[in-house]
Write a structure and sequence with these properties.
The structure is a single chain. This protein is an alpha+beta fold. The longest helix has 12 residues, at 18-29. The chain has helices at 18-29, 61-65, 81-90, 156-167, 216-225; strands spanning 8-15, 32-35, 44-48, 51-58, 71-77, 94-102, 106-112, 118-124, 146-153, 170-176, 182-188, 190-197, 206-213, 229-236, 242-247, 253-258. A hairpin with an 8-residue loop joins strand 2 and strand 3. The protein has an 8-stranded mixed beta sheet with strand order 2-3-4-1-5-8-7-6, covered by helices on one side. Strands 10-11-12-9-13-16-15-14 form an 8-stranded mixed beta sheet, with helices on one face.
Length: 261
């Protein structure tokens, strides 16, 4: 199935130590790494069984001075980056990096929703509808690929309206989490993730991306032995899998999902 406007198509790790991050994620998720061949920039691709999933962008001194910190960001496909950047501003979102080209790859911009959750929008080459990304495993479980996209936001109602208007996402049910509020599922032809009110103490609204592992307990042990930090231990979720939340050794937040053997 070809990608379309509103699909997650890529994931990027921004880090202050690309070599250490590569070693960590290769151990935990089994990714293979290679150079993207972008001239002087040390941009690295990571893949699973020969299929590209995302990239690693080393933070420069200028980025750090501008406030950038190690983090994971998703890319969402759009039909026209320039038009969508304008639409973000009109809808009370913001543009942190104006639209620009990556020759042979596509045109992209770094944006944030009205509550401040950041991500990229991109018109890839070929554009949506003309190619297929498997970075997000949209229809079946794929180890090493993203399995779930979760937004923690300080205004779920406003966020749902925003993403519906700009990307066409629909709410598809909810789960009551008691004092934490509702966990609202998001569909875009297929289930792409969910949104919820951000936890007390969480400094900003943000997206978290869950990558699939074959054995959650082996992943936890490997993560710990390679310098990662568990924020939330594995918890059983509907369907029988277990999910967990962690920080890599450089402090980038991410999540894992997988079965318990």
């Amino acid at each position: 199935m070809s990608n379309k406007h509103g699909d997650f198509i890529w994931y990027e790790l921004m880090t202050n130590d690309a070599d250490a991050a590569q070693e960590f994620y290769a151990a935990v998720l089994g990714w293979s790494f290679s150079s993207a061949g972008q001239g002087d920039q040390d941009y690295r691709l990571f893949s699973m069984k020969g299929v590209n999933v995302g990239g690693v962008l080393p933070l420069t001194a200028g980025m750090v001075e501008g406030g950038a910190r190690p983090c994971w960001l998703g890319y969402i496909a759009v039909e026209d980056v320039d038009r969508m950047a304008q639409a973000f501003v009109s809808a009370q979102g913001s543009v942190h990096m104006q639209p620009q080209d990556i020759p042979g790859i596509g045109r992209f911009a770094l944006v944030a929703d009205p509550q401040g959750a950041m991500f990229y929008i991109m018109t890839p080459t070929p554009p949506p509808g003309g190619g297929t990304s498997q970075s997000f495993a949209s229809t079946e479980p794929m180890v090493g690929h993203c399995a779930w996209n979760e937004l923690a936001t300080d205004n779920p109602t406003a966020a749902l309206n925003f993403y519906h208007d700009l990307f066409g996402w629909e709410k598809d049910g909810e789960m009551d989490m008691g004092p934490l509020g509702k966990y609202e599922f998001l569909r875009h032809d297929f289930m792409i993730g969910a949104m919820m009110a951000k936890m007390p103490g969480m400094p900003v609204s943000m997206w978290t991306h869950y990558f699939r592992v074959s054995d959650i307990d082996v992943a936890v042990a490997t993560l710990k032995s390679n310098g990662g930090k568990i924020v939330q231990e594995p918890t059983e979720i509907p369907g029988g899998d277990f999910s967990m939340y962690a920080l890599d050794p450089q402090g980038a937040a991410f999540a894992l999902v997988g079965s318990r053997r």
